[in-house]
Structure formats: C-alpha cells, structure tokens
Amino acid sequence: MSATALTKKDFVNDQEVRWCPGCGDYAILAAIQKTMPELGVAREKIVFVSGIGCSSRFPYYMNTYGFHTIHGRAPTIATGLALARPDLSIWVITGDGDALSIGGNHLIHAMRRNVNIKVLLFNNQTYGLTKGQYSPTSHPGTISKSTPYGSVDQPFSATAVALGAGATFVARTYDKDARHMSDVFKRAHEHKGAAFVEILQNCVIFNDGVFEDIVGKDQRVDHMLHLQHGERLRFGKDNQKGLAITDFAAEVVDAASGRLDDVAVHREDLQNPGYAFLLSHLMQPEFPEPVGVFRSVEKPGYESAVIAQIEEQTARRGRGNLDALLRSGDTWQIH
Ligand SMILES: Cc1ncc(C[n+]2csc(CCOP(=O)(O)OP(=O)(O)O)c2C)c(N)n1
Ligand code: SF4
To answer: 168 in ligand 1 pocket by Cβ < 6 Å?
Structure first.
C-alpha cells in the first residue's frame, strides 16, 4: 500500500469513541487523523503510545499500531520502542497529570536524551479520568474534588518543564484551531529528536472553559501571541501591541505608536533556551500566551548514539548470550 494514497478515513477505525460529548479530545483526534496522511508515512510504521487518562485512550481510536501502557510511563515504553525500531514514527499521547505528575521523571529524561519521539500533552489542567482532581498545571485557588478550599500549589508551565529538560523542539497549540494543530504536528514530525507539543484542551465536564480567556474567539486577538520565526512578537487588533524583551524580562509595548523597533523578533533556533524559557512563563492577565513553535534546534539523537555503541562493541567482542549471562555467577533455586 502506498503511503501517499492514504486519507483521513484510513486512520479512523470502528471503535466507539468514549469521551464525553463536547470534549476537546475529539477535535485533537480529528486533527491528527487528518494530518497523518500528509506525513507520507506508511500506516504500519506509525505507533501511538499512551499512559493512563481520558487522553490516553487515544490509541484505541487510531487505525495504526498503538500501546496503552501504565500511568506516566509512555515516554519510557516509547524510548524502548525507538531504540528497537528507529524506523517507526512514534507518538506519545499523555495528559497533564500523566506526564507531569506521576510521569514527570520519565518525561524529562526522554527529553534530555533527545529520543526521537513526538510527545503530545493534552493539558486540561485537571485529572479528567479520575473525575476532576487538580493537576500540576492547575492555577492556585483551583477548587476541585481534591482541593475543596482551593489549591495552594504553584503550577508548572508544561512548556517550561520540557525546555528545562533540554527538549530540542517545544511548541504549543490548542484544540479550537484544527489548522494550527495540524501545522504544529507536521513540524513536530519533521523534527529529528524529541518533540514536545502542549495542546490546550477543554474538559467540558470538570474544567469547562479554563482556557477560554486565551482561546475564546473574542479573546484570542488580545490574549494570544502567535509565534512566527523571524517575525516580531506582535498581537492585538491590527497588531498594535508587541512584546519588548530587555534585561531578561518581557514588557508589553504599543507597537503602533513608535515602539515597533523595541518589539522582539521571534527566534526559534536559539541554542540557548533562555529566550524560549522566558516565553514559556508568559501568562494571562499580564501577558498574551504564546502559541506556535517556541524552540526548534538540532542536537545529536539518542538512538543513533546507542545503536552505534552496540555495533562497535559487538564488532569488538562478538554477540552476547543473554541466557548464559543470566545463568552466570551465583544462582539460587527457591523451593
Ligand atoms: C499508578 C496509578 N496511580 C493513579 C492512577 C489513577 N489515575 C488514572 S488517570 C489519572 C490522571 C489522569 O489525568 P490526566 O493525565 O491529566 O489525563 P486526562 O484524564 O485529564 O486526559 C490518575 C491519577 C492510576 N491509574 N495508576
Ligand atoms: S472527563 Fe473531561 S477530559 Fe475526560 S472525556 Fe470527559 S470532557 Fe474529556
């Protein structure tokens, strides 16, 4: 079967989709199913790996290979898969709880190693599957099943975590814009190495409208900053506002009345992650929140280094024998 002949329909299967009506996950699923044929990868070379959560049911609904693993461990399983089968296109689907709470450790090391996997984190600032407890991305004061008097934790910025771990590709998109999601997914696919994409996703049941102030049709123009490599950081009606960055701090300036030259030009290719890290901390209501590609840089990939080392040692010492190794040294029999 030729990969170029595939259409969206080829990625849809006969499973009943079990998300609540109106959940943002549907729009993300549709955007991925639409994007897959455009990648030009054969279906049997694509695999979706997930942890546990509403979002992590995703592999059931894709007509590709899939692996529904255990809570927080999807990046680990995906790392093993990437080492064993570097020819595959490997996508990790995870939630904010799955990736940043129980799975935080696994996520950061996959990013640090620059494993060739594409991590899509559905951020709804809540634990959907377990009925609405607060999560590591929930804002202070969040009233939830587990924080009835308001959460007192300081939240993570998902993109800041990825950048802090050394991710070579970091982007953000949102469930209300199919075109934007698709463009970002394609960029993530093209990236060689670990790609991290945060998707702002609406959980209609437990956290409805939490991103409305950013993604809402009327709010977007003033509260969303579209990152475009080589272009100034401008936003607002007629792009009259901009972000100036001086002394490691951002400032909103009036770009229309003489301060255009102060407005920073977006650079996604900076080796130093400091600028992208600053962007990852911009939040409402003081700043517009960025969407698009924060950072995209090249670094050596993990798989090629590991595979080269194994080949080198095999050439020098011959193929190993796992069975002999397990039975070597002291062994015990338990009766
Ligand atoms: C070891 C373990 N601990 C806890 C759970 C319970 N649990 C299942 S999903 C989940 C959180 C899901 O939240 P998130 O990752 O944000 O995904 P969403 O459901 O919102 O898509 C938790 C705590 C579990 N399944 N396994
Ligand atoms: S609980 Fe929330 S995240 Fe889970 S399926 Fe329902 S709307 Fe979607």
So the answer is: no
pLDDT tens readout for residues 21-43:
999 999 999 999 999 999 999 99
Task: For the full predicted model, state whether its pTM sits above 0.90.
Answer: yes
Q: Using 50, 70 and 90 to split pLDDT, how confident is the model at 3?
A: very low
Whether pLDDT at 256 is above 70: yes
Q: Does the Cβ of 130 fall within 6 Å of ligand 1? A: yes
- Tokens encoding 251: 């400032």
Per DSSP, helices labelled H in the chain are 25-35, 74-84, 96-97, 104-113, 158-164, 178-190, 212-215, 220-223, 274-280, 302-317, 322-326
Contact 100/55 with Cβ under 8 angstroms?
no
Please tell me the distance between residue 153's alpha carbon and the centre of ligand 1 in angstroms: 18
Q: Whose CA is nearest to atom 13 of ligand 1?
A: 127
Ligand 2 neighbours, Cβ below 6 Å, are 19-20, 23, 25, 54, 124, 128, 203-206
Question: Ligand 2: distance of its center to the CA of 89 in Å?
Answer: 27
Residue owning the nearest CA to atom 6 of ligand 2: 20
96 lines ligand 1 (CB under 6 A): yes
Pairing state between β 118-123 and 169-174: unpaired
Got the DSSP string for 274-333?
A: HHHHHHHT--TTTSPEEEEEEEE-----HHHHHHHHHHHHHHHH----HHHHHTSS----
Least confident interval from 159-163, 183-187, 255-259: 255-259
pLDDT in tens, 131-171: 999 999 999 999 999 999 999 999 999 999 999 999 999 99
Q: Which amino acid is at 10?
A: D
Give the Å distance between the CA of 127 and the centre of ligand 2.
9
